[in-house]
Amino acid sequence: MIVTKGKYLNLIVWLLLVIIIGCNLKIGEISIDEEGAPGFPVPQIKFRPKHYVCYKTENPIIIDGKLDESVWGNAQWTDEFVDIEGDLKPQPKYRTSVKMLWDDEYFYIAGRMEEPNVWATLTKRDAVIYYDNDFEVFIDPDGDTHEYYELEINAFNTVWDLLLTKPYRDNGTAINAWDIQGLKTAVYIDGTINNPSDRDNGWTVEIGIPWSVLGQCAHKAAPPKNGDQWRGNFSRVQWQIEIQNGKYVKKINPDTSKPFPEDNWVWSPQGLIAMHYPEMWGIVQFTDKPAGSGLVSFKEDVDLYANYALYQIYYKQKNYFLEHGHYNQDINSLVTKKIKIDGYVWPPEIECTRNMFEVRLYSPEKKKLISIFNDGRLLKKNNQLIIK
């Protein structure tokens, strides 16, 4: 919320709303604070990441983009994609959804995109694929928001795969020269590509990512163990187009003489126009139960909301640093006092210097610890006595 200078009445109303919301927080709920004045981007939706149970396939999948193996019929589609900002924006114009499966060698992903005008231009690997309409995959195996994977693919089946050391907001580096060795991808066009004279139904993407590659940044079992949960998300970039001289071209905004901004439609909403906030991604739970042999319930991570409570402090610290040039060592001014986090003592502890901080959240008996650092990394220690 933005409070205009000089409008004293608006300021009073805003403060009253903050007090009312703070006094009515329940266990497991995370408040969404106003975006900090200096402008560090903060998610503006409730923290409710999507989840999906990924079943195993007993037979390897042929990657041809058609999704015609019977095992795909036994896998459920995700919820349909929404705008990247969630409920803050209207529903997408076209439908998109994903299925997932796995075996001992590969993590399989299938994307289905409704599209009346299938087009693509880029054919060189590791080109900036989102300059075309595309389908994107993001995977953070251990959920610490560092060392994660991004894969983009267009309707020509042109791939851009990169490894992120950490999010761009934390001065992370995208390693474009890195390739997913053994990657399998295919696209099937239900219609004709780059042909404005007809109307298409859409396109499907089929992907197989080797566990041998995903395990490099997992710091945990890969392939995953039964019940393991990984963080991930899927995105679809969609440009406004028109037909000129028998070809598809991006529609130009006359006010800027540039193409209109692309739409970003995602599986699990981010609450802001930025995919590189891995703490907002969805959750994939792996089961060794074969697809079609019965349902497995999703089990929510008991620390999920504790993790995000620490990110609320991280956002505040980032804004504080932008405004003051150093981090805030007063934990009481950084926390929502009325919040309650199951299994942990609130407020957390902080260790802070001018340019660095660590916020530590302990369980009552100090056998569990979750820490967040100034670079956004989340680390956990479990099932051991933690000595300060």
Which bin fits the share of residues in helices?
10-25%
Structural class by secondary-structure content: alpha+beta
The 3D shape can be described as globular
Number of domains as seen in the coordinates: 2
- On the 0 to 100 scale, the average pLDDT is 90
Order of helices and strands: HEHEEEEEEEEEHEEEEEEEHEEEE
What is the assembly state of the chains in this entry? single chain
Number of helices: 4
The CATH architecture of the largest domain can be given as: Sandwich
Largest sheet: 13 strands, mixed
Tell me the fraction of residues in β-strands, as a range.
Answer: 25-35%
Head-to-tail CA distance between termini: 38 Å
The value of Rg in angstroms is 22 Å
Uncertain ranges: 1-38, 384-388
What is the total tally of β strands? 21
CATH class of the largest domain: Mainly Beta
CATH fold-level assignment of the largest domain: Immunoglobulin-like
Q: In words, what does this structure look like?
A:
The protein has 388 residues and is of the alpha+beta class. The protein has 2 domains: 103 residues; 240 residues, Sandwich (Immunoglobulin-like). The protein is 12% helix and 30% strand. The chain is built from 4 helices and 21 strands. Strands 1, 2, 3, 4, 5, 6, 7, 8, 9, 10, 11, 16 and 17 form a 13-stranded mixed β-sheet that branches. The radius of gyration is 22 Å and the shape is globular. 35% of the residues are buried.
Briefly characterize the structure.
This protein is 12% helix and 30% strand.
Search tags:
disordered N terminus; globular; alpha+beta; 30% strand; 388 residues; Immunoglobulin-like; disordered C terminus; 13-stranded mixed β-sheet
